[in-house]
Amino acid sequence: MSRDARIGALLAVLAAALIALPLAANSYLLSVATLVLYFAYTGQAWNVMMGFAGQLSLGHALYVGLGAYAAAALFTQFGIGPWAGMWLAMALCVAAGVAIGFLAFRFGISGVYFALLTIAFAEFTRIGFDHIGWLGGPGGLFLKVEAHKTADLANLRGGQTMFYYVMLALASGAFALCAGLLKSRAGYYWRAIREDEEAARALGINTFRWKLLAVAISAAMTSLAGVFFAFYYNNLFPEQIFHISQSIEIILGPIVGGVGTLFGPILGAAMLTTLADALNNLVAAMGWDIPGVKQVFYGVILLLVVMFVPNGIWPPIAKWLGLGRGS
Amino acid sequence: MSASLIANVVIAGVLTGLVYGLMALGLSVIFGVVRVVNFAHGEMMTIAMYAAVLLFGAFKLDPLLAALPVAALFFGLGYALQAGLINPFITRPEHSQFILLVAVATILTNVLLMVFGPDARNVQTDYMLDSWAIGQVLFDKARVFSALAALATAAGLFAFFRYSRTGTAIRACADSHLGALIVGLNVKHLYALTFGLGAACVAVAGCMMTLLVEVTPSVGPGYTLLGFVIVIVGGLGSMPGALLGGVLIGVSEALAGLFIDPSAKSMFSFGLLILVLLLRPQGLLGRRP
Amino acid sequence: MERNNGMNRRKFSTALAAGGALTALAPFGIARAQGGKLKVGVLLPRSGFEALIGQSCQKGVDLAPEVIKSMLGVDIEIINADTESNVNTARTRAERLIEEGAHVLVGAFDSGQTVAIAQVAEQRGVPLVVNIAAAPQITEQGYKFVFRNFPTAGELVKNGLSLIGDLFQATSIVPRTAVYMHVNDTFGQAMTGGIKAILPRLTQLPFKIVDTIPYDPAARDLSVEVSKAKATNADFLLLVCRLNDSIVLRREMVKQRWRPMGLIDPGSPGIYEEQFSKSLGKYADYCIDNAPWFNPKAELTHVVEAAFKKHNPKEHFVFHGTNVGYTFEAILIAADAFKRAGSTNPKALADAIRATDIKERVMLGGPIKFNAKGQVEGNQSACVQILNGTPKVVLPSFAAEAKPVFPWPEYKSA
After folding, report:
1. Which residues from B are below 8 Å from C244, CB to CB?
2. Shortest Cα distance from B82 to chain C (angstroms)?
3. Closest partner residue to C257 among B1, B131, B213, by Cβ?
4. Residue C47 contacts residue A292 (beta carbons within 8 Å)
5. What radius of gyration, in Å, describes the C-alpha atoms of chain C?
6. Residue C214 touches chain B, beta carbons under 8 Å
7. Pairing between strand C381-387 and C263-265?
8. Which chain C residues are Cβ-neighbours of B118 within 8 angstroms?
9. DSSP letters of C141-177?
């Protein structure tokens, strides 16, 4: 079977399994699966900036937070639902991302300095939102929730199954978008920029514009995760949603899975989320009721993965599956 | 807003800033030479703080004195960490380095939680709550001693790098990795040495900090961020720059807190970081990368 | 959750691997509930940045089964879960507990995590009894399965402020001015709103707030804030804080030689916690916190305290009383409802909880009775003062263990 056909078959089976999952799984497994898809999605979004265009962002929580607050504010203040609110969320995040990117690239900031810049912007916004009274400030913004018998898709009110499918749709859309982007002209230019920016510029590629595009797309995608977050958890605190630990959680998946690949973020998110949860259950079953134990295990495994599988776990798995070097 | 109020605030800002500067100094040395972004820096300082607390609890050893053995211990640990774990990562992309150190930080924080529990610990020396008064202006003893220790450590480090052979060799590595190899320097050993020195700095800073704040397992990340702000503002790889950056951040935060809004004073630091990154990325005293 | 489905033989091995992963997620060691036992799933932040309070609440959980067995003759099985101070984990852990057969949930201290858990509870129709969480929204959603036995932020503010008035009456001191410092977090914000709304109306609080100084909860250094406060020359300090910053702040006051009439906290935690007294020694004395508190004279308190001593011989009950008391009461509510309902059916339990009327309590306040929103009204605070390194109730007088001291001895009239 040709490589493309094999990929197609794999995707088809995967899609079928994911769509059918709620029939077989209980609410708890669905909640974990939703979390996996959430991190697969945000990882995929971050990957556009890092894996495709080579810009390390350590402040991606900024876009999650802005998207969440934008949609939540529209909902609580004006009763506008998430499907309309998401446009504001995306616009806001694209503006923020482009602003940061513009400043950074115009002034020639890259590498570690760029990463620190993104952290600074996220922290600045976090403290800023702590002081915006009408958005709840440090006390948090709460969305009104009513128990619904049936799923109200228009307002994203419903049970675990509904949220699972919404997240599945988002993650699948992200996957399709990234696959398309990779094959497009943008994808080629990004790969050139990532490999050697100077050479790319010498070839006549307007690196400034293409990098900015990557940032904009990444920001817009991430904003939707924020919208989801707002309506899934129904409460937002600046301290939590803009926090650097959120940014770190977003990037763990793609780095462990394989930066720059299509399946990497998904695989990484799946592995890490199920690992975290399995560790919880394992530790409980062993009776090791010491807080912190699970995080130590988690850290050790992370350490081992990053040390011994530096390009992520997807490339070796792809090779094993006969899919070539893995994309 | 009286003059004495402003004077008090500025002085406290300078003194505390010097201690922050010492912590950042370790980070600057590590980053400037080894070019590794040590995201576990704050956690290293947290461990040093716990070490000082333990020594005080067991032997009533004043943190200022405890700084010596703790620094020596951390020198060894830093050396081992660099030579053992981090060295292969120097050539790896930044995101890999970052995750490596995030993993290390997670492990350290949670081991501390398991061993010490979440309770805050501190030391209680006699002079901790005393202050000297010159007119209306107060100098609190703990801060003055810590600041002096910070200056002494920085001076010592500076002298080492300036006047010793090893120090010169390390600076050579920082200037040109390839050149150093060509000249026959044992770069791996020198990198580990540098990491050890940086860790020792952080250890002294940690011991000083126990005189000023409480320690819990989760205080690390805040200090890591602070360290980076100071290092960038002051200038990467510049030792006086780290101290100057610390003082600058200390004073500007204090003044921002005084005139604007104390709860937003950190915003000011991050704003400053953004401006410096954009307009003068080498910082105040650093060299152009 | 099939992940890698390659071709034929690979399909088999990957299916095996996936099956292995699923087993790791499957409930461990299920003992399906036999008729006589109530399974209580407890969610608390035992790691992460809220670990200290989470572990304090946990002490109330650990002693609950035996005390409740002797009180009500009811068997409870506790299943513990750590929310890790994180809303993602809180939600999945709540789902997990329900999968493991928990009949009722208790938790979770943090308002954000509690809201997430409440949604799961409501969705699955499993009652949640909130032990500690002050955000008013928790009982404003119209939920049928969420119950809270803890004052809302508004109640805390009102109780805290009126106790200040009682304090001034009891000591016949009338300060004219106060400087209000508060940590910029949920409670600080609620208190600020409450002060603006309530203070003008409470006539026995004739003092004026001359300056409001908010500060960052993560601040390592509060010298600027204290300098500003000292410069106002206010009569006393009204402080809303958390543990770590309360210690830093009090130290700073000593270093800067600021000696107002006193330090009064209208109800946030921090001052009554053990570390405050341990770290500050004699400087902790005479600080006042109007916190939700246990009744030191109640019979049930003595029982719980004895059990606490048994489980934690090295700890002092007084420092954990609030956390332990409210957590214990939450489990008591569940057990009491179970006894009356006679079944572990969640709907029956929820209905029974709604009809709760417990008069014998640990905490100060009226009987435990839920209003239509699932909220207990009438939980009270006490004016607690640190005397000789120990928090003691000084007001209300029926629960008092000592007389209030205000102004504190180091105050020197200018």
Report:
1. 120, 213-214, 216
2. 28
3. B131
4. yes
5. 23
6. yes
7. unpaired
8. 51-52, 54-55
9. S--SSEEE-S--HHHHHHHHHHHHHHHHHHHT----E
Q: Looking at the 3D structure of chain B, how many domains does it have?
A: 1
pTM: 0.87
pLDDT in tens, chain C (414 residues): 333 433 444 444 444 444 444 444 544 433 344 457 899 999 999 888 888 899 999 999 999 999 999 999 999 999 999 998 888 899 999 999 999 999 999 999 988 899 999 999 998 999 999 999 988 888 988 899 999 999 988 889 889 988 998 999 899 888 999 999 999 888 888 888 888 887 777 666 678 899 999 998 888 888 899 999 999 999 999 999 988 889 999 999 998 899 999 999 998 988 999 989 988 989 999 999 999 999 999 999 999 999 999 999 999 999 999 999 999 999 999 999 999 999 999 999 999 999 999 999 999 999 999 999 999 999 999 999 999 999 999 999 999 999 999 999 888 654
For chain B, positions 236-275, list CB contacts with chain C under 8 A. 253-254, 257-258, 261-266
Q: A27 — contact with chain C (CB < 8 Å)?
A: yes
Of B110, B131, B265, the CB nearest to C255: B131
Per the structure block, which two tokens stand in for A326?
Answer: 């893995």
ipTM of the complex: 0.86
Asked if residue B273 belongs to a domain, the reply is yes
- Helix residue spans in B164-259 (DSSP H): 165-175, 177-183, 187-209, 220-234, 239-259
Residue of A nearest to C116 (CA): A233
> Residue B154's domain spans which residues?
3-279
B222 CA: distance to closest CA in chain C (Å): 8
CA distance A243 to C87: 13
Which member of C214, C221, C279 has the closest CB to residue B263?
Answer: C214
B37 within domain boundaries: yes
Would B28 be classed as within a structural domain? yes
- In order of A139, A145, C146, the CA distances from C374 in angstroms are 22, 15, 6
What residue segments make up the domains of chain A, in order of their start? 3-320
A282 vs C24, C92, C184: nearest CB: C24
For residue C391, whether the previous peptide bond is cis, meaning omega lies within 30 degrees of 0, is no
ω into C108 cis (within 30 of 0):
yes
Q: Where do the domains of chain C lie, and which CATH numbers do they carry? A: 37-151+297-379 (3.40.50.2300), 154-293+382-399 (3.40.50.2300)
CB atoms within 10 A of CB B117: 17
Answer whether B228 sits within 8 Å of A116, measured CB to CB.
yes
With residue A282 as reference, give the H or E element that holds it: helix A264-285
Q: What CATH number does the domain containing B202 carry? A: 1.10.3470
C250: DSSP letter: H
Residue of A27, A144, A274 with shortest CB distance to C95: A27
d(CA C264, CA C248): 16
Residues in chain C with CB shorter than 8 Å from the CB of A137 are 184, 189
Domain assignment present for B118: yes
Q: Which residue of C has its CA nearest to B263?
A: C215
Here the tokens at position A216 are: 């904009």
Q: With contacts defined as CB-CB under 8 Å, which chain B residues touch C270?
A: none
Mutate to test the interface with B, among C109, C179, C191, C221 (most CBs of B within 10 A): C221
CATH topology of domain A3-320: ABC transporter involved in vitamin B12 uptake, BtuC (1.10.3470)
Q: Which residues of C touch A151 (CB under 8 A)?
A: none
Give CA–CA dist A211/A190, Å, rounded.
Answer: 7
Contact at 8 Å (CB) between C323 and C132? yes
A291 to C119: CB separation less than 8 angstroms, yes or no:
no
- C275 contact B CB<8A: yes
- Contact: A310, B92; criterion CB under 8 Å: yes
